[in-house]
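Morning!

This is the sequence you dropped in the shared folder:
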Amino acid sequence: MTKEFVFAGFGGQGVLTAGMILAYSGAAKDLDVTWIPSYGSEMRGGTANCTVKLGDEEVASPFPKTPDVLIAMNEPALHKFMSSVKPGGSIIINSSIVKTIPESANVKIYSVPANDIAAHFKNARSANLCALGAAIAAADDLLTLEDVEKGLCGYLAKIKNNESNIAVLKAGYRAVSESA
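The structure's back. Tokens below.
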């Protein structure tokens, strides 16, 4: 089984880091993994996205045509990638920034106030981790929350105290798992 993710937002929102943590977590669990970043041409404040594929079998192509999960950290990201999500897939929308939440009969849409949740934990820069936790809950297999906690601590090993990051990750996970 293979799962495809797209993390998208403005540069500086941590979408590439969230994708890398997911990829790192998958590799640590001995899954086949690809991570492909994409940057806008702007020096600052431009768009950024990455695709992550995880599989318990060989990942043949690193580029997802129809991702299972879209993590949209802002409105331009939502509009750019929403139509590509696989029927039956999920969209995590950062409702702290995206104020108009669309409806869809084909995909599950989760409105997660990632910036607000991160601010609640006095860790404003970790909205990406909140969205990552939500994505893990929406994906519902291959990786557990515990796998991603370990991956986060491994990837961010230079940070001695990751308790706040883990708390935000778990809060994002709960935002989706408790709404289902």
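Headline: The two ends are 22 Å apart (CA to CA).

More detail when I'm at my desk.
O.
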